[in-house]
Design brief:
The protein is of the alpha+beta class. The protein is 40% helix and 24% strand. Helix 1 packs across helix 3, helix 2 crosses helix 3 and helix 4 runs antiparallel to helix 5. It is elongated.
Length: 329
């Protein structure tokens, strides 16, 4: 059961959220009786917090206009949520016209945080990367996120308890390279030393993470964000699709981003400008093929289906339906 001092602070937080709060509402939120709420209000007034009493049918208590908030008191999870929100909004271009506003806000928050919390959050921000595909990001488990960020920075192995998309639970060891935010989700990428291959895991499916003794060398090659995108494009699915499309890199990437497909440029054309139209080989994997014919039609570019034959049949069927519909009067 919360101590009275804790309830008084909770009352202050409720009043700081704005508006007038009825005695009944405050009593319900605090788990006390109405007369106890009035006693807590008196304690806030004794501490020079300007709480006003509002009479009438919709009366209750509110803070006086212009009251200056006390110094920030944030828990680890609250500080994490605030800083991630500022970083994500800046990365997505959702800041105000004053571009430095989110940066100065982040700096102010870190300055008033206890040193151990600020140090862990700075470690996270150093380990964090974003792909070009934005989204409304879910907030992962704070302790898992901070633990993995520390492992990334110090190149230490980490043990995770993971649940895959089939519901299977396993415990794995991972040499983590980085944390990546992509399309509204958070991922950690690294090498699984047992199989010697790169792996990417969704953070919201990690139930627990703990660092292990030892260290490892970071590999050369693509950065963490590119590793995540490449992993999506080469993931194991039912169908392997290979196409040749005539167009620019931008035209193709507008419909088939790096997280969906990989582009292969011939050596003779690799040095050409990205805006130059030429034949490019596109490879992707898919669980279903029914979404590809409409997408290829929307490209409005010449293309050749190398495999599978099933996709070629689906494209022909779509073309026949469109031609049939177009002839109707």
């Amino acid at each position: 059961m919360p101590r009275p001092t804790g309830r008084v602070l909770t009352l202050l937080e409720l009043l700081q959220s704005g508006g007038t709060r009825t005695v009944a509402e405050l009593a319900d939120r605090l788990g006390v009786e109405g007369r106890t709420v009035r006693r807590y209000v008196d304690q806030l007034i004794d501490l020079d917090v300007p709480v006003e009493s509002v009479r009438g049918r919709y009366g209750g208590y509110r803070l006086a206009p212009g009251y200056r908030l006390p110094p920030l008191m944030l828990s680890d999870d609250e500080a994490l949520a605030v800083l991630l929100g500022l970083v994500a909004s800046r990365r997505a271009g959702l800041t105000t016209t004053e571009h430095t506003a989110s940066e100065t806000a982040s700096a102010k928050i870190r300055r008033v945080l206890p040193k151990h919390i600020a140090r862990r959050l700075d470690t996270l921000l150093e380990a964090l990367a974003f792909t070009d595909e934005a989204g409304d990001f879910d907030t992962p488990n704070g302790e898992v996120l901070l633990t993995i960020a520390d492992a990334v920075r110090h190149r230490r192995p980490v043990s995770i308890r993971y649940t895959d998309r089939e519901g299977r639970r396993t415990e794995r060891t991972l040499h983590t390279y980085g944390i990546v935010a992509h399309a509204g989700r958070w991922y950690v990428t690294g090498t699984d030393p047992e199989i010697g291959a790169d792996r990417t895991f969704r953070l919201d499916r990690i139930a627990d993470a703990r660092t292990l003794p030892g260290s490892f060398e970071a590999p050369v090659g693509p950065d963490p964000a590119q590793r995540v995108l490449s992993g999506f494009a080469t993931a194991e699915y039912r169908h392997e699709v290979t196409l040749r499309i005539h167009g620019t890199v931008e035209q193709i990437r507008a419909h088939l981003p790096a997280s969906v497909a990989s582009l292969e440029e011939h050596a003779s054309t690799a040095d050409k400008d990205r805006e130059t139209e030429r034949w490019l080989r596109v490879q992707l994997r898919a669980e279903r093929l029914d979404w590809l014919p409409p997408l290829l039609a929307s490209l409005d570019r010449p293309f050749v289906i190398e495999r599978p034959d099933e996709l070629r049949n689906l494209v022909i069927a779509l073309a026949e339906r469109l031609a049939s519909n177009a002839r109707q009067t």
